[in-house]
Amino acid sequence: MTNQELLANAPEGWTGIYISDGFYRWIMEDGTQSNLISNEAYCNAQGHERCRDDIERIVYLESVLKGEAA
After folding, report:
1. Which long-range contacts link 13-16 to residues 24+ away (Cβ below 8 Å)?
2. Number of other residues whose CB lies within 10 A of the CB of residue 43
3. CA 59 to chain centre
4. At residue 70, does pLDDT exceed 60?
């Protein structure tokens, strides 16, 4: 799943995502996590978290590089 897809598919109130060995969970504002979601793109990945702000910044910078930023 690309960074753009993460933003497009994220649930309301998410603050980050936890990725581990072919699965991910959305991290919510209240500190809870979603159910496990399977995604083959994440197979063999070490467990790690990514915060929403970082993902949004990466998407913005990718759009600047492509000349799409407003």
Report:
1. 14/52, 15/51, 15/52, 16/49, 16/50, 16/51, 16/52
2. 10
3. 11
4. no
pLDDT tens, position by position, 6-43: 899 899 999 999 988 878 899 999 999 999 888 766 66
Contacts of 10 (CB under 8 A, 6+ apart): 17, 26, 52
Q: How many CB atoms lie within 10 A of CB 21?
A: 11
Rounded mean pLDDT, 35-64: 84
Give, rounded to a whole angstrom, the gap between the first and last alpha carbons of the chain. 24
DSSP 31: S
